[in-house]
Write a structure and sequence with these properties.
The structure is a homodimer. By secondary structure, chain A is of the alpha/beta class. Chain A is 38% helix and 15% strand. The first copy, chain A, has helices at 15-29, 49-62, 78-89, 106-112, 132-140, 182-195, 235-238, 261-272, 278-287, 290-317, 340-351, 377-388; strands at 36-37, 100-103, 122-127, 143-148, 166-170, 198-202, 228-233, 246-249, 255-256, 259-260, 321-323, 329-333, 353-354, 356-357, 368-372.
């Protein structure tokens, strides 16, 4: 009996544990400090009424023999896939329902999609980055090439000469909040087509994009249907972090190494997955109704307003940052040459504000700190007043 | 770019497609035949009131800021893990909450658990069997050894001399309905301990066991905590096939190849999974209350009564079978030397009853046919009257 030896190559991340420990100790020592957490990577506003109504109705259906639902298709119900087809049509992207796979969230799919690729492939991942991209590849023993994302390239690395087989793109980016424009994504699609590579496009934050000129889907770039898989989630779009629903798009035109990746992913999902709860799929369907969309947009506008308040404060302070416009994340350049942890301590001890040290997201994150717009308007304003007064 | 080449070694199963096609064509040709499906592998009774009440309340909580829940722990909420600890205490099994991992169902975990094992391991799988055990190993390129389950061994293969690293046991079994007794499971645990192997024990049908002398958990066998992982589901226990909740138990005493399998599975789940919906976990918690348990047992008693009616009919007909006592499945030996498909056609054409040909579950399934107890009492009785009159 041998275990998967690649697991021993995983780095243990103490980032969030250490953030929590310092916060806890500070709060214990200063019980009156009224600490404000701008480190939260989770939504705080409740599910919108359209979603609640749909799920309440669905729960009642499950309690009656005539309307009870057992196993659904692993790929999701037609009503939800059709709703997503229409949502993409609104972006100018034409999809077929069987190119959409409903899942319990983008994190699961980011991990599981690698099952269809050879472990010999070379993978390109930006640094700093959402740690799941790197860890899932290490678990499989794939070679990971880090792409430098830094102030010089606006935290948006562009293709080089070196050959890679799989490319991770997260736009709007976690943790930097940077967003690729159409020309930049076109360069990546052209690279992928030339190198016979596949782009894994993480669109989890697409609903925060506020400029029609910026792509919200990789399929708005010609040729992407031949080289890209798009992973998306309702976690940030509709506050589904604890409700769990996402989707992955694998175009039928995506054929690599003589195989249809759509057929392979279908086989993976029908073998190792059994679909998303009916109740949750009805809730997700409601997100895409005109009423649900309007309500979700109100929540996003609330978070975006918080980001604006934060941006204005750092502008006033002369502290440079990335993100915060088409993203719930503000990526601060720590002032006075401080390291990530040094600035973390200053914010906590002098202003009672908790952030997330950028160094936890990769070597290029050193000297940066991430704040999020997910707290309440009141707390966000209060935190910024402490900093600017 | 290379895809995972192991996928091309998967056999394409046309079983359920072919069953559906023949049924559809027969029904179209004979619209008045009133065909009864005893092929259903899915529950038909609605969720019990205790579960509906809990989920209705949880949906309402998600709509209010004060009670809204975002990300929970990937491993599940404490309230549900504690409920499962108590459920196992009732079986005489002592577990710690952090040995229990809540998931979206046993099928996902059966597929995903292999991530922690080397692809060099040799795997033993009974034949006939739930096809997912074999397919998930083929996807990883592991060598699969089939264990003959047949009339001679009561469809319960026992350990041989040959060394294997991973052993699949499903008891009560899908598709045969056979159940291992304490002595038989002890022999498997002893084998696993002697061979440094891991048993993957699929307990999805444990709630159908109706004899306190038969084990409902592998951990009722001494030493199993050092060699076994148990996968379970609320799909058949509480009708959660479309609601999606299961759990996997990885004891902390389970150390192989110098590694804690509990720690490895925790790392796998925290990296590639984001937990089960809060609403569903509240529903699952309600299953384990005295009220919920009593209501779920009523449903199981209903299915068990169907199985009894079916068993009595085949006894009368002198057709031998396995299962149907501690299982919703009846595994018929096709009469008159018929093949699985020949008997399928006889049942469909002469009696308007749909079954599932045993040959679809492996080579030892040839000459057998699976019926299930998941239809209504009325339809089940009607079908059996057609056969016996």
């Amino acid at each position: 009996m041998k275990v998967n030896g690649h697991f021993s190559n995983l780095a243990t991340s103490y980032l969030f544990t250490e953030v929590a420990r310092r916060q806890r100790e500070y709060t214990a020592a200063h019980p009156d400090a009224e600490t404000i957490r701008l480190s939260i990577g989770d939504v705080t506003r409740p599910l919108v009424p359209a979603v609640i109504d749909a799920m309440t109705k669905a729960v009642a259906e499950m309690g009656k023999a005539e309307t009870f639902r057992g196993y659904g298709d692993e790929q999701g119900y037609g009503f939800l896939r059709d709703a997503i087809v229409k949502y993409y049509a609104g972006k100018g992207v034409e999809l077929a329902p069987d190119e959409i796979f409903i899942s319990d969230g983008a994190k699961s799919d980011v991990g599981n999609i690698l099952n269809i690729f050879s472990t010999d492939n070379i993978v390109a991942v930006p640094d700093p980055v959402y740690p799941v991209y790197v860890d899932t590849n290490i678990m499989d023993g794939r070679k990971v090439l880090l792409l430098d994302a830094n102030a010089e390239n606006g935290f948006l690395p562009m293709p080089g000469e070196e050959h890679v087989d799989i490319i991770y793109i997260c736009s709007p980016n976690n943790p930097t909040g940077a967003v690729y424009n159409r020309e930049q994504l076109t360069a990546w699609v052209d690279y992928a087509l030339a190198h016979d590579a596949v782009i894994l496009f993480d669109a989890a934050y697409e609903a925060f994009i506020n400029d029609p000129a910026l792509p919200t889907s990789i399929y708005q770039i010609p040729g992407a249907e031949k080289c890209a898989i798009e992973l998306c989630s309702l976690s940030k779009t509709a506050g589904f972090t604890g409700t769990r629903c996402g989707y992955t798009i694998v175009p039928k035109a995506l054929v690599k190494d003589g195989a249809s990746l759509n057929a392979m992913w279908l086989r993976r999902q029908t073998t190792k997955f059994n679909g998303v709860p009916y109740i949750v799929q009805r809730g997700a369907e409601a997100v895409f109704t005109p009423e649900g969309m309007a309500q979700c947009k109100e929540n996003i506008a609330h978070y975006r307003e918080n980001a604006k308040v934060m941006g204005a404060a750092f502008d006033k302070l002369g502290i440079s940052y990335c993100g915060g416009v088409h993203s719930p994340y503000i990526w601060l350049h720590c002032p006075d040459g401080m390291t990530s942890w040094e600035y973390f301590d200053v914010l906590l001890e002098q202003y009672h504000i908790v952030g997330t040290p950028g160094s936890g997201f990769g070597k290029n994150g050193e000297g940066y700190l991430r704040l999020t717009a997910f707290n309440t308007a009141e707390n966000t304003k209060k935190a910024m007043e402490r900093l600017t007064k």
